[in-house]
Amino acid sequence: MSNELNNFEKEVRKAMENYEGPRRDNAWDDLQQRMDAAGSGNAGPKAGSSALKFGLLALVAAAIGFAVNYEWSEPSTNPDTQTEQVAEINQQSDEVENQESKVEESIENDVASSSEPAKLQTDEKSEVNSETKSTTETSEPVSENEKQAENEVGSDRENNSVVTENTQNSPQQTETETPILTVSKSVVCKGEKVSFELSNGTDFKLKDSRGRVYDEHSLSFADEGTKNLVAVYSTGETEPIEVEVKGKPTANFTYSKDLIDGGRPHYNFENTGSGGASYKWLLNDEIVSKDESTSVFLLKKGSYNASLITSNDAGCADTNQQVIFVEESYNLLAPDAFTPNGDGKNDTWLPVALENPAYRFELEVLDQSNNVVFRTSDPSKKWEGPRNIDSFNRTQLVFFWRAVVYYEGQRESYGGTIQVIP
């Protein structure tokens, strides 16, 4: 008996593991054909898709319900219990089959209901087309005169449309604009040249208020005042333009020379011009002063270009230039010879300028071998000449001197030769 129960238990387990619900092989093909037939209407694809989704969900639900409801318990050795289990399995199999039948019936109903709106819409279109055809057939024929009148009206409309379009697209006629005369400067100085231009680049001639015509496009004015000019071109002339001409100042100066601070050559420059508001003094193109009058030291031999630029409030300027000749360089007024013979005349040597207390200096005297034979920074101490002067020949009695002078914050260097005469 025990062996029979074990065999029965194995068969039940095998049946449960390999269980498949009853189905028809052509069920899915039938379902697809029904969905295709329903899809010919406007609502077909949407309804078919909904039915398919519903069917799949129902099948999944049935399978889940079967799995949940079935109790997976250990097989019993009691024959009565085994008989009950087999009966329960058969009952659940019947329930699954019933679920599948309900799913198929639900899908068929959905497909049928979705095809009705499409059919109704098709019928409505047929009715509308029929009414339209009937109306066309029953309308009265149009006479030849009426057709001709309609054609003439249509032609007039087309002509009016063309005229309107041409009117809108045609460029508007504008009057030729008068060119404008411009000038490079509206306020100029007497004798200064200014340029004129016409805004459209047309060739022109200038005409002043007195009627005088100028071929040039650049003019200068010799007298002061307001000038009115127009440009005369091929088809007319421009509006007048004003140019204000200002007078120029007169630049002129004089200069003089004096010696100050130990004989330093001092040149005084005095403005003698008129009409000036500002001034600029230059020596060899270098600005030395902006005062109305000035003075400078010219210490080196040579020629100097002295210039005065005088300007007025209108910005007009005049220039005067003069050349100054300096005949010899300033060298501290140092003598180039002396006679230390004890006769009381010209017995000592020192540059005259260094006797002025305005200078601070350093002085050295050297022989021909570059040996320093005398040195001083005291203006009261002068060189008395070499010792044993009789032992020198005349050529040996030439000495060199050099000095550094500090004057008004400037360091100046000087030097030269000294001839000692016994």
Keywords:
PKD_dom_sf, six-stranded mixed beta sheet, 422 residues, 4 domains, 33% helix, Immunoglobulin-like, 5 helices, Ig-like_fold, alpha+beta
Question: Overview of this structure, please?
Answer:
The chain folds into four domains: 128 residues, no CATH class; 66 residues, Immunoglobulin-like (Sandwich), CATH 2.60.40; 74 residues, Sandwich (Immunoglobulin-like); 84 residues, Immunoglobulin-like. Helices cover 33% and strands 29% of the residues. The chain has five helices and 21 strands. Strands 2, 4, 5, 7, 8 and 9 form a six-stranded mixed beta sheet that branches. Strands 17-21-20-18-19 form a five-stranded mixed beta sheet, with no helix packed on it. A hairpin with a 2-residue loop joins strand 20 and strand 21. Helix 1 packs parallel to helix 4 and helix 2 packs parallel to helix 4. The longest helix has 60 residues.
